[in-house]
Design the sequence.
């Protein structure tokens, strides 16, 4: 579950990241290397969330239906389908597979 | 600074792009609200996250960690690492927020991938300010309203697994992150991270695998490495040497609008070479 203190911690930390530039922008510069690392870190975490969210449930395998749906969504996203279509197609694929008895 | 002068300052194309990004984010926000509540979180969680954190990627990440059984602190840590990218954005757009302290304190909350991207595309100081405030305020309102509506709708959904909604969460994230994967080293880092996270899942407490993915950063290379796109601002707080970068899906035209400019998209602002790499 998500207790209030966790929401507040995330909110305060995020606000601090945002405020540093507007407050210290005149006195401080970020290195190009740090900028690059932070951007890559964000992409790495998001992709890891996609992979674990698609493939795992608890400590085990999520079954075939869910990753199949995510795969369909990924292919559509690569082909630049509109966002709603991407998400709905993913969910519908998974739902149809389950309807057919594929877990 | 009133609304009408903001609108007059910006070009028609910029106003249209901001509207398109708002529309795309409304859909992402509604998905976030619906997925959170239908996954079992109380109504106040997605709403409080949206009002207070206001960063879509980290909101999805935190909720995803918690819904998969992870601890609250793992959720916070994941969200914070994701949002650390807002730190350089803050330095990039600092000039657009100049003014009394209250204005900077208030404006800071409006810094997102999108508002930073729109500021980067303006070269003149007045336009940078106008783009920042218009995009920031509009997105803040649109995002929170759509999350609320999605969360209310999510409460009405019965069997979420039968509807395949568990696939919607990774699907949303995938659509959000794809535009930032155009650079080869970023892709390598992300793939290594994902493999580590999935392989670790059976053995470590929930929430930790995603953080372990950060070992992928060892493959991130440096900013000067070939094929790496850089954020095109070198002068601190200055408006010079701004490379007109294309935030994913925003300037790329109306067609791809939805998948790109969303609070989650990580390296979007820097991913200028997107089109060529694909």
Sequence:
């Amino acid at each position: 579950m998500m207790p209030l203190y966790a929401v507040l911690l995330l909110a305060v930390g995020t606000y601090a990241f945002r405020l540093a530039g507007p407050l210290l922008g005149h006195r401080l510069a970020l290195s190009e290397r740090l900028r690059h690392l932070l951007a890559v870190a964000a992409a790495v975490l998001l992709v890891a969330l996609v992979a674990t969210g698609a493939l795992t449930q608890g400590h085990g395998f999520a079954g075939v239906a869910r990753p199949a749906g995510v795969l369909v969504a990924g292919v559509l996203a690569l082909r630049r389908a509109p966002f709603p279509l991407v998400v709905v197609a993913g969910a519908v694929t998974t739902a149809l597979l389950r309807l057919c008895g594929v877990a | 600074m009133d609304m009408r002068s903001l609108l007059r300052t910006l070009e028609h194309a910029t106003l249209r792009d901001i509207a398109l990004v708002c529309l795309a984010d409304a859909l992402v926000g509604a998905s976030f609200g619906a997925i959170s509540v239908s996954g079992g979180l109380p109504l106040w969680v997605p709403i409080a996250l949206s009002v207070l954190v206001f960063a879509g990627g980290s909101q999805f990440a935190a909720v995803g960690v918690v819904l998969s059984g992870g601890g609250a602190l793992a959720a916070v840590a994941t969200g914070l690492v994701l949002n650390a990218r807002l730190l350089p954005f803050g330095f990039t757009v600092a000039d657009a927020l100049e003014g009394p302290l209250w204005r900077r304190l208030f404006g800071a909350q409006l810094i997102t991938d999108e508002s930073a991207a729109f500021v980067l595309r303006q070269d003149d100081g007045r336009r940078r300010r106008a783009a920042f405030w218009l995009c920031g305020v509009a997105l803040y309102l649109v995002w929170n309203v759509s999350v609320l509506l999605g969360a209310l709708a999510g409460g009405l959904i019965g069997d979420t697994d039968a509807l395949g909604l568990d696939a919607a969460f990774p699907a949303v994230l995938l659509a959000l992150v794809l535009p930032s994967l155009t650079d080869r080293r970023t892709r390598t880092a992300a793939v290594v991270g994902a493999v580590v996270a999935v392989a670790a899942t059976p053995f470590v407490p929930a929430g930790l695998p995603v953080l372990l993915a950060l070992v992928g950063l060892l493959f991130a290379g440096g900013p000067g490495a070939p094929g790496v796109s850089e954020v095109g601002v070198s002068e601190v707080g200055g408006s010079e040497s701004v490379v007109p970068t294309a935030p994913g899906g925003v300037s790329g035209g109306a067609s791809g609008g939805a998948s790109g400019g969303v609070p989650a998209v990580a390296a979007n602002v820097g991913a200028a070479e997107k089109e060529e790499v694909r």
Observations:
- The first strand of chain A starts at residue 56 and ends at 57.
- The CA atoms of residues 3 and 10 of chain A lie 11 Å apart.
